[in-house]
């Protein structure tokens, strides 16, 4: 009974977050205020941290903001829980494809974001992960990694990167965990590779 | 992973850097007197149920062994320690983790530590 009530409350909180999110995406094109939606999703996570639903929905908010590192972070978090969100794997596949495509079109970093703290670091980081994601050996792996580390060194000397650095670490840990699972041939929904 | 020569070179380099960092921490801070906090730190609360960190080596970050319950979350009337004390407790956690790794029979840290003690 307790578990059923918890699940019901969790589901309700996620839906309330969805309604708040729809209100912002449908009614506004800019200056969106995600506070209420994020609040509901965070409450849902606090109630049932084993569910990946909240993180998947937070990724949807990040998609609306076109913030690639937040998208990648939340989708990885949606996958590395006891109850991974069913479509999170497909969403992550899609996001990495988008990253590679926008990189090819040189659109990954908007012109107005060039001076934004941590932006260049985020761009190189998500691009490196997108290239590594398929699990195929990468000729320019060292070059990409060194470029990211160069940006990290510069940024760390100039400012604290608490929030961004935590996301970077957790994405790395999650990606290694998922890759290890694929290597071991696990067949959970979160680890199926599309053909 | 150890069988991959490319990865093993980087891994060995990582362990050396890790050992150096821990040595510096121990030399800088009074390890035995470092405080601990009995509630979840921000980064711990953010990683509850994060599967890569759910194992027997990390569960003490989240659980209070004396009462066998999850540590209290921030807010809800919990009085937080000074940020400096929280940072010191993080250092205590880093040192504790390193000691645990050294106890691991196959830990590379043991071989680094042994090699350094012979060179002293």
Can you put this structure into words, describing what you see?
The complex is a heterodimer of chains A (195) and B (120). Chain A is mostly helical and 195 residues long. Helix content of chain A is 69%, strand content 0%. In chain A, helix 1 (2-27) packs parallel to helix 3. The model of chain A has no long low-confidence stretch (mean pLDDT 87). Helix content of chain B is 55%, strand content 3%. Chain B is built from 5 helices and 2 strands, in the order αααββαα. In chain B, a hairpin with a 4-residue loop joins strand 1 (63-64) and strand 2. In chain B, helix 1 crosses helix 4 and helix 1 (5-28) crosses helix 5. Chain A binds chain B through residues 46, 49-50, 77, 80-82, 166, 170, 173-174, 176-177, and chain B through 43, 46-53, 73.
How are the SSEs ordered, and which strands pair?
The complex is a heterodimer of chains A (195) and B (120).
Chain A: H1 2-27, H2 35-47, H3 53-65, H4 68-79, H5 88-104, H6 119-132, H7 141-158, H8 162-183
Chain B: H1 5-28, H2 42-46, H3 59-62, E1 63-64, E2 69-70, H4 83-103, H5 108-119
Antiparallel strand pairs in B: 1-2
Helix pairs in contact in B: 1-4, 1-5
């Amino acid at each position: 009974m307790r578990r059923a009530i918890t699940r019901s409350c969790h589901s309700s909180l996620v839906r309330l977050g969805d309604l708040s999110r729809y209100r912002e995406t449908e009614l506004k094109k800019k200056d969106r205020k995600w506070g209420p939606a994020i609040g509901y999703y965070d409450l849902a996570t606090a109630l049932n941290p084993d569910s990946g639903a909240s993180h998947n929905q937070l990724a949807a908010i990040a998609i609306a903001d076109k913030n690639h590192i937040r998208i990648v972070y939340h989708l990885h978090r949606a996958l590395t829980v006891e109850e991974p969100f069913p479509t999170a794997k497909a969403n992550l596949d899609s996001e990495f494809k988008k990253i590679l495509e926008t990189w090819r079109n040189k659109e990954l970093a908007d012109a107005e974001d060039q001076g934004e703290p941590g932006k260049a670091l985020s761009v190189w980081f998500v691009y490196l992960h997108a290239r590594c994601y398929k699990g195929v050996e990468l000729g320019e792996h060292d070059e990409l990694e060194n470029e990211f580390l160069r940006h990290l060194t510069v940024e760390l000397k100039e400012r604290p990167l608490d929030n961004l650095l935590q996301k970077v670490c957790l994405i790395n840990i999650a990606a290694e965990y998922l890759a290890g699972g694929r290597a071991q041939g696990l067949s959970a929904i979160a680890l199926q590779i599309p053909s | 992973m150890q069988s991959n020569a490319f990865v093993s070179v980087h891994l060995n380099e990582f362990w050396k850097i890790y050992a150096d960092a821990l040595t510096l921490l121990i030399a800088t801070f009074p390890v035995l007197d470092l405080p601990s906090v009995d509630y979840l730190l921000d980064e711990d609360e953010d990683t509850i149920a994060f599967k890569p960190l759910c194992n027997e080596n990390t569960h003490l970050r989240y659980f209070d062994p004396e009462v066998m319950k999850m540590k209290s979350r921030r807010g809800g009337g919990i009085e937080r320690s000074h940020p400096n004390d929280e940072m010191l407790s993080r250092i205590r956690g880093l040192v504790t983790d390193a000691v645990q790794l050294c106890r691991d029979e196959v830990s590379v840290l043991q071989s680094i530590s042994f090699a350094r003690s012979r060179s002293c």
